[in-house]
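Here is the promised in-class demo. Please do not try to memorize the tokens; focus on the logic of going from shape to residues.
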């Protein structure tokens, strides 16, 4: 199913373009996750992200980051969207909330990036 949301379409196009340019499979995997129906996209709580990450890690959530739970270390998270509470908690601890295109441009080789969700 093809997304009708222009923001999702832009993300998919960005991921596929970067995958073709760099040959990095991570971007193709993420593009396929974004091509899925809106109803099958993930929502991930901060408690889960906290459990599976360490200080200063880079994480991509192909969906929405929710603010339930605590975040105990600084991380860099790129996601389709963030709840207000999640954004507040991430920034309070010194982390960053990034867009998918921003992390793709900042780390084109995809090394050290975890997908959660």
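The designed amino acids, position by position:
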């Amino acid at each position: 199913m093809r997304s009708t949301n222009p923001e999702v379409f832009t993300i998919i196009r960005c991921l596929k373009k970067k995958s073709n340019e760099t040959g990095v499979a991570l971007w193709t995997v993420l593009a396929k996750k974004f091509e899925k129906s809106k109803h099958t996209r993930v929502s991930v709580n901060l408690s889960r992200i906290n459990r599976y990450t360490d200080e200063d890690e880079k994480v991509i959530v192909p969906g929405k980051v929710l603010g339930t739970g605590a975040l105990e270390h600084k991380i860099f998270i790129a996601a389709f969207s963030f709840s207000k509470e999640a954004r507040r908690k991430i920034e309070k601890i010194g982390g960053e909330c990034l867009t998918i295109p921003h992390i793709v441009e900042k780390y084109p080789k995809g090394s050290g990036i975890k997908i959660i969700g």
